[in-house]
Structure formats: C-alpha cells, structure tokens
Hints:
A: 20 helices, 2 strands, B: mainly alpha, two-stranded antiparallel sheet, 27 helices
Amino acid sequence: MILVILIGLLFLGGVLAWISEGLDARFPRIVALVTVLLDLLIMLSLLGGEGWVASIELEWLPRFGISFFLAADGLSVLLLILTAFLGAIAIGAAWDEITERTGFFYFNLLWTLAGVLGVFTALDLFLFFFFWEVMLIPMYFIIAIWGHENKNYAAMKFFIFTQVTGMLMLVAILMLAYFHYEQFGTYSFNYHDLLNVRTSGQLEIWMMLGFFIAFATKLPSVPFHSWLPDAHSQAPTAGSVILAGILLKTGAYGLIRFAVPLFPAASMEFAPIAMTLAAISILYCAKVAFAQNDIKRLIAYTSVSHMGFVTLGIYAWNEQALQGAIMTMLAHGLSAAALFMLAGGLQHRIHTRNMPDMGGFWAKVPRMAVVALFFSVAALGMPGLGNFIGEFLALIGAFQANIWLTVISAFGLIFASVYSLWVIQKVFQGEYRNEDFDDSHLSDLSRREMVYFIAMMIGLLWMGMYPQSFLALSATSLTEIMGGTQQVVLSLVEGSL
Amino acid sequence: MLELIWLLPTFPALGFLSLVLTSGNLPKKVVAVIGAGSIGLSFLVAALCAMEFLNSGADHFSRETWTWMAVGSFNPGFTFYLDGLSTVMMLVITGVGFLIHVYATGYMADDPGYSRFFSYMNLFVAAMLMLVLGDNLVVLYLGWEGVGLCSYLLIGFWYTNPANGYAARKAFVVTRVGDTSMAIGLFLLFAHFGTLNIQDLMHAAETEWAVGHQLPAIAALLLLGGAVGKSAQLPLQTWLPDAMAGPTPISALIHAATMVTAGVYLIARTHILFELAPDVQILVAWIGLITLLMAGFTAMTQSDIKRILAFSTVSQIGYMFLGLGVGAWSASIFHLMTHAFFKALLFLGAGSVILAMHHEQNIFKMGALRKVLPFSFACFLIGSLALTAFPFTSGFFSKDEILLAALELEGPGTILWLGGVIGAFFTGIYTFRLMFIVFFGENRGHHCEGEYGGWNMKAPLAVLMLLSLVGGFIHIPVDAVFSHGEVHEEHHANLLVEGFMILVPLIGIGIAYLFYGSKTFSVDKLMASSLAQNLHRLWNSGWGMDWLYDRLFVFPFMWLARINARDIIDLFYAVIVEVNRMLHRMIVRTQTGSLRWYALSLATGLVLIVTLGVLL
C-alpha cells in the first residue's frame, strides 16, 4: 500500500500544484516541495527490512494476466530515495528559474517523478511499460515549454528516441507474454512468472535486444546517446537534474531488473558486445566531451561516459561489478545533478553556456568555484567520494569477466581528469574578463543554493567513505537476481551436455 | 598511544575542514595556528607512536577502524599498519611537513589566498599519511590520488596565470596515466588473490608465484607504472619541472620531500612482488639510472633556480630507483629520508632567496648574494654539500650505500655503479654551478636588501641544516621489513672504490669552480660550436620529451577532439531525419487534390499488385 501512496501522492500533488497557481504563482513550488519531502519521509520507513519490503498486487485485466503489481526491494528503495532526494533538489533548482506557467511546470515535474517511482517498483511488465511512458510525456513538456533557444528540436528528439525504442520493448514484452501463454496456458505479465519462460536462442536474442535497445537509449549508451546532449543543453536546470540524476538510471535499472534476468542466456552471449559498447561510450564520449564549448553539452557527454561504467559493470554480472554499477548510478546521480545545477546557475546569471567567454570566476564567485571543484573532482573518480567506489568496483568486477575491455575502459579515468580539470580551468581559473557577457547578475551561490549543494556533497562523501550503508541495501536484491540467472545458465549448460 | 594512531591523519584533516568551512574568514594568525599546529600535533603523535612501537620490539602493529566497503570477498578497510618502513615515512612526512608548514606561515604571509593555501597543505598531509599507513592497496590508492589532487591544487594555486593552470593539469594528467596503470595492477592482483591487503598479498604471491613467472612480472610492471608517474621517472618525468609553478613551500613539501617519493615507497612496500620478477626489478634500476643521468644533464643547463632543483630531485629519485632495482631497499629508503632533509632545505633556502630578490628566479640575475644573504647562503652551502654527497654529510652515507649495493650486484652491477658515479659527478657540477653563480661573483644589478622573513622562516631552516648535516648517522629501523630480501647487509668496499666515489663529485665541484667561480674557463667559448649549442638546446628542453609527447599524444588528441566536436554518430540520425523529410516532400507532391490523378495512381497500383501476384 505504501508504494501506492508514494506514487499517488505525487500524482495528486501535481494536480494540486497546477490548481494552486490560480491562487498565487508562488504556491505551486511550495506544494511540490512539500509533496516530494513527504514522499521522502515515507520512503525512509522502507529502510531496514529484508527482501521485498513492500508490495501490492491487485487484479487489473485478469484476462490477459495483467495486474497492478508494485513491489520494492533494497535496490528499488535505494533508487526511490535517490528519486525523491533529487526531486527535491530539482524543485530547488527551479525555484527562481521558472517564472512562467509555474503550476503546469510543477505538475509535469511531479508526474515525471511519479512515473519514475512506478518504473522502479512495477513488477508487472505491462504496468512497467505504462510508467515508462508516464515519465516520458511530462518530461517532453518540460523541455519543450521551459527550454532554451532550440527547445522544440531537442524535445522532439528526446521524444522520438525514447518512444521508438520503447515500442521495441513493448513488442518484446508482448512476445514474452505470448510465450508464457504457449508454455503455461495463460497470459501473464507478472515478472516472477515471466522469469520462468524459456525460449529458444534466436527468439530470446531478439526479445533481449528489444529490452536492451530501450534501456541503452535511456542510459544512454553509444550509439543511442545523441539525444542526450541536445535534451540537456535545452532543458531548464530542473529538467537536467531529473534527466541526468534519475531518468538515466531507469535504463540501468531496467537492465539489472529485466533485460538480463529475463534473458540470461542471450545476455551472456551478448555481454561482450554490451561491454564493448560500454568501453566505446566511456572513451568516445569522454573525448567528445572535451571538445565541447557549451558547458551543458560537455556535462551531458561526460554523463554518457560515466554511464559506460554502469553498462560495463552490469554485463560483467558479478557481485563487485553490479554493486559498482549501482554505486555509480547513485553517485553519478548526485554529481551530474550538481554539475548541471552549477551550469544552469551560471546560465541564469550570465545568459551564456559558452565556456570560451568565461574565465577567472574564482575570485568573483569563490563559493561556486569550490562547489564546482568538489563535484568535478568527484566526477573524475577521486577516492573518498562516491563516484570512485562505483567505478572502482565496476572495474575490479569487470576485470574478472573481461580483462581487455576493462583495461581499455580504465583509460576513461585519464580522460575524465582531462575534461573535468579543463572545465575548472576554462570557467574558474585564468584572468577574469567580461567582454562577452553581462556580469551585473553574476553573484555567488545564495544560502538556499548552498543548502542543496551541501546536501549533495554530504551524500557523495557518505557514499565515498562509508558506502556500506548503500551496498548493504542492494546486496540482498543482487543475491536474488544473480541467483536466478545463475540457475538458468547452469541448467542450460547441463542441458547442452 | 599506538591505539591512537588514527589521530595522525585526523588532525590535518580537521585542519583542512575548519579552514574550508570558514572559507578565508579567519584572521591570518588563527589560520597559521590551525595550519601548522595540526601538523605539529600530528608529528607529536607520530613521534610518540614511533617510540612506543620501536620499544615494543614487535615487527608490526595494526589498528582497525572501519570496513570501507565489503562486496563479496572484496573488503578493504581503513586499517592502519605500522612497521619500520611506515614509521620512517610518517616521521619524515609529519616532521619535515611541520617544518615546511611553519616556514610557509612566513613565506605566504602577504598572499590573499593564505587560508586556501593551508587548507590544501593540510589535506595533502592527511592524504600522504593515509598513503603510507594504509594496510591495503585501496587505502594506499586513496592517499595516492589524494596527494595528486593536492599537488594539482597547489601547483595551480596562483590560478590567474593560465600557465600555472596548464602545469597543474599536466601534473595531474601525466601522473594519472601512471595511476591508471597502477589501478589495473590492483585489479590483476585482486583477480588472482582475492584480496588487496598488502601483507596477505605479498605472502600469497610468495607462496603461489614462482620467481620469474610471467604474472608477477606483469603485476610488478603495472605497479611500476604508477611509481614512475608519481616519482617523476622516465618516461613520465615531464610534469615535475613544470610543477615548480606552485609556491616554493609546495615544491619543498610535495615535489621534493614527500609525494614524489611515494613511488619509491610503493616499490619498497611491495618489494616481495618485485623480487619475484627479477626482470622488472632490474628494469627499475635501469629506469633510475637513465633518469638520473638525463636529469643531471638537464640540470646543468637550466637558469631558473627552482627548475635546477626540480631536475635535481628527479635525478636523486633516480638514485632511489637505482637502489630499489639492485635490491638495496633500506638504502633507498635511507636516501629518501636524507633527500627529504637536504632537498627541503635547498627549496626553502631558494624560497628565501626568491623572496629577498622580489620574486626573481633567474640565477643569472643574481650574484654575490653570500654577503647580503648570509643565512640563505649557509642553507645552500650545507644543502649543496649534502646533495653532492660530501663526506659525512647526510647525502654521503645514503648515496654511498646505494652505489656500493649496485657494485656488488652480479651482471650489470658495474655499469649501474659507474653510471651512478657519473651522475654524482654531474650533481657536483650543477649544484655548485648554481652556488657560484648565485652567491659568488659580482652583483648583476639586483636590489636585494637582505634576508626576508622572521624566526618562523629561519628556525625550520636551521633544523633542516642540522638534519642535512647529521642525518646520515640516523639508523632507520627497516631491517625487519626487508630482512628476508636484503642480500648485502654489510658492504665491504675497498678503500680505492670508496676514495674514487668521494673524489668524483669533488672533481665536479672543481669543474664548476673553474667555469663559474674562478672563470678560468669560459662557458661562452665552450658554447661557441654549433654542436655544443644543439646539445645545450636538447638538454635544456629536458631531452625534448615534452616536444615528443606533444606530438605523440596531446596534438592527436586535440585534433581528434576538434574534428569530431559535433559527434559523428549524431550524423547518422540527422541523415534519417533528412531522408524522412525528403520522402515527406515527395509524398506531399502527390497530394494534388486532382481526382483524375488519384484514380490513375489507384489503377496503376492495382495493376502492379495483380501482376506481381500473378508472376509470383
């Protein structure tokens, strides 16, 4: 029930926020913040349990075996908390930036979050697909209405990429339900039922690809990544925070929860290709990131690069690698969100994202400089901060699965230092000059902004110094997921002998 | 006290935090007390711990705090491990570190970034202590990256000059190349032994791997990659001279006394692995030898006082690598310690000279400074004597031990020894070239009114002078650490060899005197030939390594980045969009609204389909 409340509250809060605009344009943001914080509070009650800490299963369309089935285990709870936490941060980012049609904005924001919560908890694949779509459409509006100079193009690109690949997943889901009918006599979209469906090699690979492409687009991984830089550079800051911090993680979550466990044999066969794509993502996008002048595009490409470690870890499919992937998801959620907020904050102040125009901001806005330095250093994988734990675990795990791809991916650590320090150099170091922009609004981070950033810094330090609190939560989920795939793979090996 | 060993990095870490959180709003006096005081407390704890540990007679002590991360069998913890080696390291770091911090309270007095400076310095010491006290390679890696970050921050401390930023990034990225190699080494070791605890690893490697096996060689080579990056050895030495862009106390602390010797520590710490890979171990010696010679040549051609010292540092670490390579583990650590004393002394002395000269670093604009700056002169004299291994100074004993160990090695030992002696000859030349140019001769038109700074800058120098003189008599307690590996406990050198080794640097000093002191020989005449000029250019540029790396790595990377800034993969999707648009336009054209046209196309289509159906 608690999961229904969590999601319902966001849907309701969204409607309330929209209505409250009629009273005062400042009401929606308050309604939204209260809703999200309430959600966060309720989520904390999910901590501490073992296994599936919350679940609800109601009949929906029994004829097709479709049910309203939500459940959360440790992995889901981690991602739920990340979602609510970054949701609150995103509202903070929008606080002063969004001044037009605020009601509709916060409506969309909360509905996106609701969709994400649904994605992280749905265990009925039809319901999962429903939430997958729910989080897409409001996000489209956020980019298309409150975005920057090229917003329509970016929003449309985002929509088409996600929609087309989502359709592939839908086809795969329907096929899977049909095979369940063939093998067991009933249709079912229930995750636990579908785990038992066995299909032959060729078909399994096609269905697996349907899921993989949908998730790899969201993640994103090369070659499905090119919507992301456009979406990020055009989205309002809050949109970027949600995109980078949360939406990308739904792709990784989908791979861990669905793509691999549902098709273990095909995934095993596909793993070298996926890991190759991961290595390409890491290196290629790090290189492209370095070449960007638009600071938001740069951060967007680094996101793709970091997500490469997630793919690498997932397809290495051992305990260290998977925990590494999950830690990278969490840590990158915070660090990328913070970097986008900084970039958004800069754009809000000086109306440009063009780095060659900037320089020497350290003396002007020292607090902002220190904060930017912190998150850049986190992003380049400094031990002691969360991103290091994630990438190190992912690599040490991946090394046991595929030595050469891991070695190649490890070079990403070098490139990460190149682009991260380059940003600091271009924006904050060097001589200050303001020929290319109006610096009358260039003020240092406000107290309110500092609250958000400090919250994220504490999060990253916590992940970096005592990751055990996070690793322990996901450990049981991983044992179950990995146990299942191992059984299948073993039985297949025995069958072939 | 030993139970409280965790306080060691905690004090500087707290210092860092308090300075960062107050973000420069504290008065300078308070900053100085926090900045230097935290290191002082650390040194106190270190000294007490060391005493207790050495008196206990145990060969190691370890203190667990908490598990960092536990994933399956991978569970490194923040556990402090103290043995003879880490005892020496922590005393050098906190002791020399404290002196340099005190010196810096005076040196940086007029800098607006006073608080920022000390916060970075404190963070550095905390990270460096983690590096040498961690009982596993992951915590070591934490310290390793941490000191790299502080090095970056401090090289680029004066950030308004883009050149400093470039030097800082160069240092970070070049060392990160080495770090990545080291990280891969960690992955390999974990994949084979299921642990990264150093003692467990060494034990397991010894029992499972045979000497000369391929795997220990690869693992040792990967760790060596990390070591050459951090310690500025061939082929990753290019960052260190540029790192002199940072304030001088940084050069003394990070780029002479502590961080750059981390590579030496790493190899000494994992010496069992290197002994299992004799080919790699002897490679360490060759790297050391070639680096020390190349850097020696370059040091003779530099004109910036700090760059001379930087190349000298590269060269002296080369000696340490040479020692490691020939299995003289304790001699290398001994040289690490004495080098920390005399090189810190030289850098801080150089700092005093630079301040007194109003930030002039070109030695050819100085001259006859011994009269105006007698105290700095004394510093430099003692530092230079120790650096050139003048008998009974600290550098003499440590360098002597390394060279004798090399001589005793079968096979390439004689060549390694001879190379090391030649290096000592160059050391004599470049060190006293600097001495004679800066402190003797005539005034070259500078306005130097006298010594800069008060007791807080002089007292640390006095202590370092003492240590540089008598540091050679300290016995470092590392015998138990290297007990089973060390072959040569007592060196029985004959008098002839010993005399030769004493004489060679003196000849170097003599040559420096003839060219720069008495001016009996003229440098200009020497430089007249085009061959000499080309050689000078080659050496002066650090053997063109920067030039080479720019062309091999930097330019191609920049070029690739530039031509693909638009991301060629996106082009694929752009083409799809374009094709769609084209089709759209074509189809739009068919919608003419004329009924006849529609009827005609309907009929044509029908005929086509029917024909197809019939044919197939």
